[in-house]
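Researcher: Quick one. two chains, 611 residues in total.
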Amino acid sequence: MPEFRNYFLNFGPQHPAAHGVLRMVLELDGEVVVGADPHIGMLHRGTEKLAEHKKWMQNLPYMDRLDYVSAMCNEHAYCLALEKLLGIDVPIRARYIRVLFDEITRILNHLLWVGSHGLDVGAMSMILYAFREREDLLDCYEAVSGTRVHAAYYRPGGVLRDLPDTMPKYTESKWKNAEKLKRLNEARDGSLLDFIDDFAQRFPKRLDEYETLLTDNRIWKQRLVNVGVVTSERAIALGFSGPMLRASGVEWDLRKTQPYEVYDRLDFGIPVGTAGDCYDRYLVRMEEMRQSTRILRQCVDWLRANPGPVVTDDCRAAAPPRAEMKSTLEGMIRHFKLFSEGFFVPEGEVYSAIEHPKGEFGVYVVSDGANKPYRLKIRSPGFAHLAAIGEMTQGHMIADVVTIVGTLDIVFGEIDR
Amino acid sequence: MKSTSPAPEMFAQTLQRHFGKRVSTHVSLGQTRIDVDANDYLDVMQRLRDEPDLCFEQLIDLCGIDHSAYGKTLWTGRRFAVVSQLLSISKNRRARIRCFVPDDIFPSIPSIRPVWNSADWFEREAFDLFGIVFTGHGNLRRLLTDYGFDGHPLRKDFPVSGKVEARYDAGRGRVVNEPTTAKAREIMPRRFPE
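Model:
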C-alpha cells in the first residue's frame, strides 16, 4: 500500500475567505499545514507604472483605489510626500480635518475587518452590525467629497473644501415611512460636525455590544486564541507594522513616535498586545476604534471653535479662487496652466509614511523636476503581512488558515497595486 | 514613548565613523540617504542592522528604479538602482539606502534576504518589475505579473499600454495572448519648467 506523502491544496482565488483574489498553494501533511505559498498579483493594475505617465494631481485618485477600505489615508501619505517636496504649508484647520477623516477611516477599516473576520470564523451577525455603523461614516465621506468610497478629498496643501453645514437626509420611500424616517434623520438635522459628534457619542456603546458578542464568546476564543502567534522579534524581522506589530507587544505607532499633522496635540492611547496571537490582534483593533472615537471628539471640538482656510493659497499647487480666476488675467492663466500641464515638483526624493489603519503606509516619490512623477513606490502594509503567512500558518490546521488570513486584514488593492 | 528622532547631521557623523569613505551620506528634506557601492552593499546592510548605535531592525521597503529616462538630459550613470527604506524602532530613526546595480544588461546585486526576512517579497517584486537579479535570494520568482509574463513592466522602455492583450479563443477553448492593438496616447506629455 502506498504511503501518504504531503500533498498540495489550492486555496482561492475564488474563495469566500480569500478576501478578494488571494490564491494560496498549501502544502499539507494530513490536515496540518506544512507550508503556504501565496500567489498574488491577480489585482495588479500597474498603479506605479501608470503614475509615471500621469500628472502629479491626476495620481491622487489612484491612491483611493489602493486600499479601497481606507481610501483617505492613502491620499494622505501621497499628499504629505508632495507637500514635503514642494515645501508648501498646510493650514491648521486642514490638518485637523485630515486627522478627523483619518480616524473616521480607521474606524471604517476596523469595522469592515471585524465584520469580515467574524464572517470567516463563523460569527455571522457581526458583519451586519458593522455595516450599520459603516453606513453612517460613509455618509460623512459623501458629505465632504460627494462619493462614498473613492473620496479624492485631500489635496496637496489641504483638503478640497470645508466641512458642509448640512447633512444629507433620508427621503420617504416605499420602504421608509414617516416614523422610520424621523428616527433615521434624527442626527442629521445639524452640520456634519454635529453628526460626527453624535456618532462619537453612540459608537462606544455599540462597541460594547460587539464585545459582548465576541470578546468572551467561547467559540470565538477557541478559534482565535493561540492561533498565528508571532513573537515581537519575528514581527520586527518580518517587517510588520500597525496593529500586527502592536499585538506582538511592540509599542510603535507613527502617530506617537513620528507625529504628523496635529497628532502631537491630541490625547489618545496606543493599545499593545502581549501574546501576539489572533485574539490579541482582535483586542488591539477593538481598542483602536475606541481611541479613534476619542480623537474624533477632540477634533470636532477644535473644528467647531476655529474656522479658517482649509487649503493653502500657495500658487504652485493650489487652484486660484473662482472669483479671481473669472476676474483677473493672472488668475485665469494660473488656472489654465494648473489644469493643462499641471504643476512642476522640484527635483528630489522623499519617503513619507503614515499610520494607516493596517500599518505603515508609505509613499516614496522621486521627482526629476517634471510635471509627472519619475518613480512612485507605494509601500503597503498588507504586502509585508501577507509575505509572512507561510511562517504564521505553519503547524496549524486548514481551518486556522482562514483565521490567519482574516487577522492579517489584507486588501488586495494595496498588495497587488 | 520614545522621543523624536535626532538631527540627521549627528546621524551622518555616526555613519562616517562606522563606514568611512565606503558610503556617502546626503541629507535632503530632513531625510538621510546613504549611497553605497554594490561591493559593500551586503556588508553595510548587515552592519546597519547589527551595530548597537545604528540598530535598523526593520526593512520597511525595497524597490528598484530605472534611471534611463531621468531628467532633461541624457542619463549617463548606471541605469538601475535598488533603494531600501530602513527603520530603527529602538532609535526612532529612518534611513534610505541607495545602491546602483553594476551591470545594465544583466543587473545583479546581492540579496539582503538573509539580513531582513521582509526583503523576500520586496526583492521578488523588484526582480519581477525591473529584472534585477538578487543573488543568493533562493526563491526569486515573479510575484505580481501574470503566469508566463514576458518582460519587466516598470522599465522605462516597456510601453504603458503593454505588449500583449488577452482574449478568449472559442475555437481553441482557452484564453490566448496576442500582440496588443492598443495605441499609446498621451494627452499631456512629460514636461519641464522653462
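Residues 8-147 of chain B form a domain with the Beta Polymerase; domain 2 fold (CATH 3.30.460.80).
Researcher: Thanks, that's what I needed.
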